[in-house]
Amino acid sequence: MTKKPQRRSNDYFLDRLRAEHPAVYADLEAGKLKNPAEAFRVAGLRKQTAPLDLLRSAWSKASAAEREAFTTEIGCISAVIRSAAPISTSAVVSPAKTMSSSTKQTVPPMLEAEVRRIMTFRNLTTGTVMREMGRGPHDASLGMALHRGTQIKHDLIVALEEWVKENRVT
Questions:
Q1: How many CB atoms lie within 10 A of CB 95?
Q2: I want to staple 76 with a disulfide (CB 3.0 to 4.6 A). Which of 1, 71, 117, 142 is the partner?
């Protein structure tokens, strides 16, 4: 026996509004609310999409060129880094040098920007970067850290710092 899929159309929510929230339904019928969607939000049947959620959704759908154009337009630091003098990553990650190799942390923003800059300039994948650092190209930790902001081990950050020094783009 197959189960009938649920339908969440406006009719479904209008029926619920009429049954569960008659005062809000009366306001909708009287024209006090602009449209059914507003009535559903007032009654708490649907959530309003937060602007931050809309931005996240649009960002995930944007191409790399669109993201770069947007960050440049809003004056994001990554756009400034490309035009600035070379960055000293040793100053950026020096506090991390005192940590043990098993300690996990996110990639410092300035180091991340420099890694991305070199990768873009040389047209590298994260697997190639990992191979150049003497690690397995199928190790996804660097890619996850760059694309999703996950944490990586301290020894990988130290290796990244050395890799950036060796591959600095002027």
A1: 10
A2: 71
